[in-house]
Design brief:
6-stranded parallel β-sheet; N-(1-d-carboxylethyl)-l-norvaline Dehydrogenase, domain 2; 3-stranded mixed β-sheet; alpha/beta; 2 domains; 13 helices
Length: about 300
């Protein structure tokens, strides 16, 4: 651990919990977010509020990012008030933002030209795991960089994996999330069928969350489906970047992905039907409508 302050930029659904846990593990944490409420919550936990990315770089040699997209990472690093503007050399960025593997590699090259070390480090897990400090952390960078970062990453995650060179963290997360997406799409396609042939939704829910068809997707989403709860999870639109990431890898390697392509079709159909701002579980509604049924606890869909 370093005695100098550590920086953290991006205090959203995931970043807030990660920053709070990191604040407990370092001597001082400098934070920045566009939301004053998010900043206040960290200040209440002892973090130092900064005026912007440039101000963070003036104080910190190691800075974590947790942002919505690659464009946000670029702006924070290379923008007029970005980290590059005041980086005096020796700055290291650990970017936990989920972005395309090719973007991570390109940003790392541009950062290196500016004398900045950039490593991609997406995380896997829901906001609750960010709060608990039990995320799975996927680091892309050199072994030396991983060894340097690991003590800090252990403050935010339970499983810390060195995935390979820069870009490999993003590749690993995309592979994991696509498997998750396939599970969700399968549930959304099959659960309405179960209702259509006369099975009672609650009984189906008990089986698919305890028997051999059980998965994280079923245990997380099926109870929410039964309660008609289609909010508070990452939206279809927001999560689409995982699909793009895997599509790019498939094109690069000429991989055949028929099951993944079928999932993507379901995903796109749900977005086209107007459910893009709802969670991935909203794919269920496409298949419910087709069969004229509802997978809900004791009542039709509202």
């Amino acid at each position: 651990m370093t005695s100098k302050p550590v920086g953290f930029i991006g205090l959203g659904q995931m970043g807030r919990g990660m920053a709070l846990n990191l604040a407990k593990a370092v001597d001082a944490l400098c934070v920045f977010d566009l939301s004053s409420d998010a900043m206040a919550a960290l200040a209440a936990a002892g973090a130092i509020q900064s005026a912007g990315p440039r101000a963070v770089a003036q104080t910190c040699d190691l800075i974590f990012l947790c942002l919505p997209s690659a464009s946000h990472s670029r702006s924070v690093i290379f923008g007029p008030d970005g980290l590059q503007a005041s980086a005096a050399g020796g700055l290291t960025i650990v970017d936990t933002t989920t972005l395309d593997r090719t973007d991570a590699i390109a940003i790392a090259r541009e950062a290196a030209d500016a004398g900045i070390a950039y490593w991609d480090c997406p995380v896997s897990g829901l906001p609750q795991r960010a709060d608990d400090g039990t995320l799975t952390v996927l680091f892309g960078g050199s072994k030396a960089a991983f060894d340097m970062a690991k003590p800090f990453l252990e403050a935010i995650g339970e499983e810390i994996v060195h995935c390979g060179p820069v870009g490999c963290g993003q590749a690993m997360k995309a592979i994991n999330n696509i498997l998750y997406d396939v599970n969700i799409a399968a549930l959304c396609e099959v659960l309405p069928l179960a209702v259509a042939v006369g099975l009672e939704p609650e009984a189906v829910g008990r089986v698919v969350t305890t028997a051999s068809g059980r998965s994280f997707a079923s245990t997380h989403f099926v109870p929410r489906m039964l309660e008609n709860c289609f909010d508070k999870d990452f939206t279809l639109n927001g999560a689409y970047k995982d699909i793009v990431n895997v599509q790019h890898m498939a094109i690069e390697t000429r991989a055949s992905l028929p099951v993944v392509n079928a999932m993507i079709s379901s995903y796109q159909s749900a977005i086209a039907a107007g459910f893009g701002d709802e969670p991935k579980s909203a794919m269920l509604k496409v298949y419910e409508k087709a069969l004229g049924v509802a997978f809900r606890r004791g009542r039709p869909e509202e």
